[in-house]
Amino acid sequence: MPDRIFNFSAGPGTLPLEVLQQAAKDVVNFNDKGIGLIEMSHRSKEFVAVADEAEALLREILGVPDNFKVLFLQGGASTQFAMVPMNLLGPGKKATYLNTGVWAKKAIKEAKFFGDVQVAYSSEESTFNHVPTPDDYQVDDDSEYLYLVSNNTIYGTQFHQFPKTDKMLVCDMSSDIMSKSLDFSEFGIIFAGAQKNMGPAGCAVVIIRDDLIGRTPENIPTMFRYKTHADKGSMFNTPPCFSIHVIGLVLKWLKKMGGLPVMEEMNREKAALLYKAIDATDFYRGHAEVTSRPLMNVTFNLPTPELEAKFVQEATAEGFDGLKGHRSVGGCRASIYNAFPREGVHKLISFMQKFEQQN
Ligand SMILES: *Cc1c(COP(=O)(O)O)cnc(C)c1O
After folding, report:
1. What phi, psi does 51 have (nearest 5°)?
2. Sheet containing 285-286, strands listed edge to edge, beginning at the edge strand earlier in sequence
3. Domain co-membership, 228 together with 291
4. Other CB atoms within 10 A of residue 91 CB
5. Would you say residue 298 lies in a domain?
6. What's the pLDDT band for 1 if we cut at 50, 70, 90?
7. What is d(CA 274, CA 216) in angstroms, rounded to the nearest whole number?
8. 346 within some domain
9. DSSP state for residue 6 in the 8-state scheme
10. Which residue, 245, 286, 350, 355, is most buried by CB atoms nearer than 10 A?
């Protein structure tokens, strides 16, 4: 097996090596029980302890207030695009959405099945290269919630301040949850697919305010009601056991590293290094407007699509994976989630400088 390469994939993304090693061991023999974690009943006391610990760590690290439930659900983040409006809207009810990219657009499409949708802002005309400030849009008075995607994984833009509004926020944090501290007071629901910054695919974490759980219209099927899962501690049916276990291991690692303040500082440092390298030359051009630049997914272009293809090809040969931009924007994208090592950023920058000189 080769040494591990530097994985810049946008998702599933890099996880800490020690977590992968522990998870591999646990798949075969969990806690010296002579049985693998993914073979065990989800009702066994061993697995219940795993799930309880994952939830407790998530609450502790993110500072989730007592009046929020934490759910581990299946169907990825995409199922939440529908589940949110299924549970919070209905005939005659309205929600407001900020269209800042593909993931927001997909959520808007689903919301329209269940209620009226006000798209208060769209950055589509500028290829989603920025996120709005609160002065850029108005939220209708009769709206139930304001929906946003905190970090636009594909285009590489991020809200550095959350909207100021009297509406509760519903936020897709799939690609920046656990990267910095949060103030929960403005949020009704936060959700995130695990596979960007928290663990393996197959699990979405949903953090939902208590009072929103009982509002679901009666004709919504059982599995799509938040109450079903909240009442049963995410064990109404068989939960995504392996994903939950690995999320727990990632959270233990995160706590050991110093928690969110340390993560945020490390993320800022890594991103700053990369943006500095991009800004130092005309050869590389950042896609996002400077004020919308994210810490997690750094998107950039080279002078021509041919050079971009060559860049990705040569980078792959040097042991960098996942640098090709998403098919809807092209260019390059370096995803530098929590577990991505700073050494990899330094190596990429050296490679970028060498590539520029040679081309
Ligand atoms: C990846 C991603 C999704 C989709 O996640 P799935 O788990 O594949 O459904 C949704 N929103 C954002 C912001 C993402 O980055």
Report:
1. -65, -40
2. 285-286, 297-301, 332-335
3. no
4. 8
5. yes
6. low
7. 45
8. yes
9. E
10. 245
- Considering 256, 289, 310, which residue would you say is the last residue of a domain? 256
Looking at residue 134, its amino acid is P
Nearest CA to ligand 1 atom 2: 174
Closest CA to 97 of 113, 79, 112: 112
190 CA to centre of ligand 1 in angstroms: 13
314 & 344 share domain: yes
> 285-308: per-residue pLDDT in tens?
999 999 999 999 999 999 999 999
Q: Which domain holds residue 247?
A: 18-256
Number of domains in the chain: 2
CB-defined site of ligand 1, < 6 Å: 11, 76-78, 103, 149, 153, 172, 174-175, 193, 196
Number of H helices, E strands in the chain: 9, 14
Angle between helices 45-62 and 241-257 (to 10 degrees): 40
* pTM for this predicted structure: 0.98
Name the residues annotated as catalytic. Answer: 103, 172, 196
Specify the CATH number for the domain of residue 312.
3.90.1150.10
**211 C-alpha to ligand 1 centroid (Å):** 26
Report how far ligand 1's centroid is from the alpha carbon of 204 (Å): 9
The three-state secondary structure class of 143 is strand
Q: Which amino acid is at 20?
A: L
Query: For a pocket test of ligand 1, which of 78, 97, 102 has the largest count of ligand atoms closer than 8 A to its C-beta?
Result: 78
Distance, CA 80 to ligand 1 centroid (Å)?
Answer: 10
Residues 162 and 36 placed together within one structural domain of the fold: yes
User: What is the Cα–Cα distance from 269 to 295, expressed in whole angstroms?
Assistant: 9
Helix intervals (H) in 206-304: 226-231, 241-257, 259-279
Residues in the chain: 359
**Is a pLDDT exceeding 80 seen at residue 60?**
yes
